[in-house]
Amino acid sequence: MPKTQEKARLLETRRVADDTHRIVLYAPRITATARPGQFVMVRIASEGADPLLNRPFSFHRIHKDDGLFEILFRVVGRGTWLLSQRKEGSSLDVIGPLGNAFPMPEAQEEIVALAAGGIGIAPMVELGYRLADWAREKDSRQVFLFYGARTASELVPLGKLERRGIRASFSTDDGSRGSCGTVVDLMDQSVRESGLLPQRLYACGPLAMQAAVAAWAHEKDVRATMSLESVMACGIGACLGCALPAAHPDDSSRARHVHVCKEGPVFDSRKILWEKMEPTPVRPLTFVCS
Ligand SMILES: Cc1cc2nc3c(=O)[nH]c(=O)nc-3n(C[C@H](O)[C@H](O)[C@H](O)COP(=O)(O)OP(=O)(O)OC[C@H]3O[C@@H](n4cnc5c(N)ncnc54)[C@H](O)[C@@H]3O)c2cc1C
Ligand code: FES
Question: Which atom number of ligand 2 is nearest to the Cα of residue 262?
Answer without folding.
Answer: 4
